[in-house]
Design a protein that fits this description.
The complex is a heterodimer of chains A (116) and B (117). Chain A has 116 residues and is an all-beta fold. In chain A, 0% of the residues lie in helices and 47% in strands. In chain A, 36% of the residues are buried. With 117 residues, chain B is mainly β. Chain B contains no helices and twelve strands. In chain B, strands 2, 5, 6, 10, 11 and 12 form a six-stranded mixed sheet that branches. In chain B, a hairpin with a 4-residue loop joins strand 8 and strand 9. The radius of gyration of chain B is 14 Å and the shape is globular. Classes of the chains: A mainly beta (116), B mainly beta (117). At the A-B interface, strand 4, strand 5 and strand 9 of A face strand 6, strand 10 and strand 11 of B.
Chain lengths: 116, 117
């Protein structure tokens, strides 16, 4: 079956612009996660959703970052007034449920965001 | 917050040989899970192996096995009979078993593994 997909694969924008990054999870997966991976670092947690609601958004770095999942499937990560420090690979993952702790998180290929 | 440390930025191994990647973590929790993920140049993270903290037996998946030392908070990955396709960045990750941070993975900085023919 299809895995987690993310669009666009690459995004180049200018400082101060608004961007949206999209994640299509595996069909039927109720939990969805966003991570940010800066160059030379491991992924850092941003937010996760259980269904339509954000169960934990404590990883969002500031109020320029916002994510939604209105119908409990596709999610969009929105970044306002982008800064050069936002440049990173943004990874999305999904899993069948978060209540079963060892459930594998299935990752997408990421979106590489470059802010000039 | 939990921290995960991978002290080896780079490792290399000859094809068919064995290599061990190190990982240590810091936590005050007793209920947690540990993972090794592989990230090839395609960027897609792939789960290699996982270990439940309550299990004393070390996890094994084909050529991949772990040495889980709970008291020492150590979780190393051993790759036996290394293959060219094993070349990738490897990340160690921690996940709480309960509480408000249940959903998140904490990752180390990664170890870049090179496999020589």
């Amino acid at each position: 079956g299809a895995g987690v997909s993310q669009t666009p694969s690459n995004k180049v924008t200018e400082k101060g612009k608004y961007v949206e990054l999209r994640c299509d999870p595996i069909s039927g997966h109720t939990a969805l996660y966003w991570y940010r991976q800066s160059l030379g670092q491991g992924p850092e947690f941003l937010i996760y959703f259980q269904g339509t609601g954000a169960a934990d958004d404590s990883g969002l770095p500031n109020d320029r970052f916002f994510a939604v999942r209105p119908e409990g499937s596709v999610s969009t990560l929105k970044i306002q007034r982008t800064e050069r420090g936002d440049s990173a690979v943004y990874l999305c993952a999904s899993s069948p449920a978060h209540t079963i702790n060892y459930n594998e998180q299935f990752f997408g290929p990421g979106t590489r965001l470059t802010v000039l | 917050a939990q921290t995960v440390t991978q002290s080896q930025p780079e490792m290399s191994v000859q094809e068919a040989e064995t290599v061990t990647l190190s990982c240590t973590y810091d936590t005050s929790e007793s209920d947690y899970y540990l993972f090794w993920y592989k990230q090839p140049p395609s960027r897609q993270m792939i789960l290699v192996i996982r270990q439940e903290a309550y299990k004393q037996q070390n996890a094994t998946e084909n050529r991949f096995s772990v040495n889980f030392q709970k008291a020492a908070k150590s979780f190393s990955l051993k790759i036996s009979d290394s293959q060219l396709g094993d070349a990738a960045m490897y990340f160690c990750a921690y996940r709480s078993g309960r509480g408000s941070t249940l959903g998140r993975l904490y990752f180390g900085r990664g170890t870049q593994l090179t496999v020589w023919p």
